[in-house]
Amino acid sequence: MRSRKSTEARKEEIVRAALTIVEQSGLDTLNINDIASEIKLVPSAIYRHFKGKEEIVAALIAFADKRLKHNVSQAAALDGSVISQLKLLFELHVKLLREEAAIPRILYFLLNSARDPELKANMLSVVGFYTQQVKELLLQGQEKREVSLDLDISAAAMLFLGMVQPLAILSEVNQEVLIECPPELWHIYQRAITI
């Protein structure tokens, strides 16, 4: 007989299964039956924890938010220069792409879809918060004279995110991109913000 899992453990299992499916097939094909099949449950067992697909997608967004916030807190806790904190944040973001390839797929799908404006707004809020954290690090860098005082902080924060987007897209074809390209991307970015 199968042992009962706690509600939190079951929800996490459902989110993990959904991430696997999104990574393999995309967000638009995600459905309750496939999630149930992935974790060897009946669909009604999924509905005990989530009302439907939209709640599961909201949980996926919350998962992405939690991971990004964790990365920000790790970078902020690093002793050393702001440049080293930004570098760590970039490296953690690339690591997240390697570990959770579904996250960019969720982002791109929601940004290009008009089906659920609330989910889209939630995802944009996550990205907005992350961008704001990068801006704050860059401002700290200016205060400490590690980052160019002439730097447009908003543009530099967007460029920080912009380094990650092509990696996410190109890694769909070649995972080596996530290993080969980040060091040089970081080198170019660091030179640009410290000139």
TrEMBL record:
<dbReference type="InterPro" id="IPR036271">
    <property type="entry name" value="Tet_transcr_reg_TetR-rel_C_sf"/>
</dbReference>
<protein>
    <recommendedName>
        <fullName>HTH tetR-type domain-containing protein</fullName>
    </recommendedName>
</protein>
<keyword id="KW-0805">Transcription regulation</keyword>
<keyword id="KW-0804">Transcription</keyword>
<feature type="domain" description="HTH tetR-type">
    <location>
        <begin position="8"/>
        <end position="68"/>
    </location>
</feature>
<keyword id="KW-0238">DNA-binding</keyword>
<dbReference type="Pfam" id="PF00440">
    <property type="entry name" value="TetR_N"/>
</dbReference>
<dbReference type="InterPro" id="IPR001647">
    <property type="entry name" value="HTH_TetR"/>
</dbReference>
<dbReference type="GO" id="GO:0003677">
    <property type="term" value="F:DNA binding"/>
</dbReference>
<dbReference type="InterPro" id="IPR009057">
    <property type="entry name" value="Homeodomain-like_sf"/>
</dbReference>
<feature type="DNA-binding region" description="H-T-H motif">
    <location>
        <begin position="31"/>
        <end position="50"/>
    </location>
</feature>
